[in-house]
Each structure stands twice: as C-alpha cells, then as structure tokens.
Write a structure and sequence with these properties.
Layout (H helix, E strand, L loop, with lengths): L11 E4 L5 E8 L2 E8 L2 E6 L7 H17 L10 H9 L13 H14 L1 H4 L8 H13 L4 H20 L30 H9 L4 H11 L5 H6 L5 E2 L4 E4 L20 E4 L2 H13 L21 H15 L11 H15 L4 H8 L4 H7 L7 H14 L3
Antiparallel strand pairs: 1-2, 2-3, 3-4, 5-6, 6-7
C-alpha cells in the first residue's frame, strides 16, 4: 500500500519588477505573504486579501504593521474561545470576594458555555464575528431559552472577548457590533416571587422541626442566603445585643467554610422579634449543641445540614402551609431573602442605604432595582399616598 505525502509549498523571496528583494514579503504557491517582528518574535502570515501587485503588497504590509502597533488589529492567534474562557476564569476578578472565581461559579460558566455556546467554543476567537454572536443569541431565543439565560450567555461571550482584547488577541469586541434588539435583557421578564409578612410567618410555622423553623426564619426574617444559613455559628449570634454577624458560608457538599459571596456580604444583621423567638426556642431545645463554634442549624451530631435537606424542608413547609406567592417564580430559599428585602422597604419603609447594608449589597442601586417595587394595586397605592399627605398636613 502506498501513501502520498502532501508538502506545503516553499516560501519564495518576493522581488520587485527589477528583481530586487522586497523586505518582509514572500510568495507561496503564487500567493503573497509577509514577515514581521512582534513582541520580540519573528512572525509571518499570508495576506487575507491578496494584493494585486508589488506596490499593493508593500502598502498592505505597512498598513498592517501600523494597525498592529496602534492596537487597531491583533496579531494572528489560533486560540479558541474555549481556551480564552479557561484563561479568563483563572484570572483574578476585581469584584470577586477572594479575587478568583468560586468553584461553583466556574462550573456554572463552563456548563453555560457547553450547553449554549457550543457553536463558538471551538472557533478561533479572532474568527468570531458580530453575526456569529447574534446568531447564537438568536438561536437561544428560538429554542425558548429564558431571557435570564440569554443574558448570562451574552455576558459570558462579552466578558471572554473583552479579556481577549485586553490580552491583545482581539482588537475589538465582536459583541460591540450587536444591534440594540439583538442584545438580550432580563429586565422585567417576570415578576419576582415574594411573600408578605403573614406568608412568611405561616411558612416558618409550618416547618417540621425547630431547627428547620429557625433556618427558615434566618432567611425570611434575616435575609441570609442559604449558604450563610448553613455557615452561621452560635458565636455569630448575640441575642442580647440583637445582632447576627454574617462572616462565612457553606456551599455545595463541601463543609469547609468560605468567605461570604462579596465583601459587602460580611455584615451585621439586626435580629427582628420574629427571628429572636425562633433562635431562643432553638437554643433552649439544643443546649448540648450551643457553643460559639457550633453551627446554629445542624444535624443531631453537630454537623451542618446539607443543602438537599434544607431544600426538602422548605418544600414540605410550602406544602403544609398551602402557600401561593405573588409573582411568577416558584418559592425558593432565595425568594425568602427577597421577601425579607421587600419587607424592609415596603412595610418597614427603611432607607435604601440601610436595607442595602442589611442585605449585604455593595450598591444601594441594586437594592432599589430588585426590592423597592410597589406591588399594590392602584387604589391601595392612591389611598396610601393621600393618607400620608393628609397626615403631613398637605
């Protein structure tokens, strides 16, 4: 059996009409290419648009070198989108609590990319165009993906390409070429679920054990995230001062404590009366498991409760309380936190800056956008405004 080996045609030094060598130019199989220096390394590439003649070749090489020097174009790279994404994930993030992505966020981004961005994952990042980005996002919309998922995919695309620009692989971000209607937006996609104060009280009362009722109260009356509920120790709770110090979280199956989600997430939370009662009842019941390093919500041998068991406890409480929340979302642990934020804003009428500190938000604008929504009907809103105006003498 014979084999045929295909060899690439050799480079030939380009020469002008007088036979003189042309600096930095060569031909290969009748096509023009150029040599140049970049970042201290000798490089070469074929012209993407072939010159018509000697003068065109010289002018195109000079134009390319000027654009490369000014950052208007990037040197040729074979790196794929998947490779740039992996490198970006290893790069410190300014807003990250520990400087780097958490394992959960890293896994979520990888899942998002493999599930929704597979068409561009293996593409050279320099080959990705605005049309490719628009097509990927458009296909997601046609497939019925929620706008929230499309926003996450868009942010991953944009972030990775911005990283490529910063690294000199791209001269411009292809996401900048999207038309307004091609950029997904999750704003007002659906009304967020929430419980009013009566609903939160009913849900907590439906908890099937004192520890589960305390866990529900920490989320509903304290605004703690699920990981923060799991990571809370009795040493963080000062019932006499009426405060909880949130300093850590437990996420996933790993029982090793981690810092809070953000720097602002490390915060002091006031203990409302409804939460105080639940914590005191739990402390009185579990005297052998109440010491500074013990977890507030734990198993009978002092280990932190798993996320699975806490989610199951919430589902049981919802079913027993027969609750139907306002909004389109299903009830979850994060909805309890959301309900607490709304309660502080709409029922206690606290300043947004105070609510932001209590919720662990760095910026009060986030608090305003998510929680400061008046969900009352027009008549109720009108009566309340008029009543307050009358009380103020206006």
């Amino acid at each position: 059996m014979s084999t045929t080996t295909t060899q690439q045609a050799p480079r030939v030094q380009a020469r002008d009409t007088r036979g003189r060598p042309m600096e930095g130019l060569f031909t290969r199989a009748g096509r023009w290419g150029m040599n140049y220096q970049h970042d201290g390394r000798a490089r070469s590439r074929m012209f993407e648009t072939q010159p018509m003649g000697h003068r065109d070749a010289r002018r195109m090489r000079q134009s390319f070198l000027a654009a490369l020097h000014e950052g208007r174009t990037a040197d040729r790279s074979v790196e794929t989108f998947a490779q740039l994404l992996a490198e970006w994930q290893e790069t410190p993030r300014k807003r990250s609590r520990e400087g780097f992505l958490s394992e959960r966020t890293r896994a979520h981004e990888q899942h998002l990319a493999k599930r929704h961005l597979r068409d561009v994952l293996t593409m050279r990042v320099q080959a990705i165009t605005s049309r490719d980005v628009a097509r990927v996002l458009g296909d997601m919309a046609k497939a019925g993906r929620s706008s929230s998922t499309r926003v996450q995919a868009y942010r991953l695309l944009r972030g990775t390409c911005s990283f490529a620009v910063a690294r000199g692989v791209l001269s411009a971000n292809p996401c900048d070429g999207l038309l307004d209607h091609e950029r997904p937006s999750a704003e007002n996609e659906r009304e967020l679920a929430r419980l009013d104060s009566d609903g939160m009280a009913a849900l907590i009362a439906a908890g099937r054990s004192e520890r589960f009722r305390a866990a529900l109260a920490l989320a509903a009356w304290g605004g703690l995230r699920l990981g923060e509920v799991r990571g809370l120790r009795w040493g963080d709770v000062d019932l006499d001062a009426g405060t909880i110090r949130v300093e850590r979280q437990l996420t996933g199956r790993d029982e090793a404590p981690k810092p809070t989600k953000t720097k602002a997430g490390t915060r002091t939370v006031p203990i409302l009366p409804a939460l105080d009662r639940r914590l005191r009842e739990l402390r009185a019941q579990r005297t052998t498991l109440v010491h500074p390093t013990a977890y507030v919500v734990s198993t009978h041998d002092g280990r932190p409760l798993s996320e699975r068991n806490l989610r199951r406890a919430l589902d049981h409480a919802i079913a027993d309380a027969k609750l139907t929340p306002s909004g389109d979302e299903r009830l979850s642990w994060h909805v309890l936190r959301h309900s607490f934020g709304s309660y502080l804003v709409t029922e206690l009428e606290l300043p947004l800056t105070t609510v932001a500190r209590t919720m662990g938000h760095r910026d009060a604008s986030v608090t305003a956008k998510v929680y400061a929504r008046d969900v009352s009907d027009d008549q109720t809103m009108t009566e309340r405004v008029i009543a307050r105006a009358v009380a103020a003498g206006n």
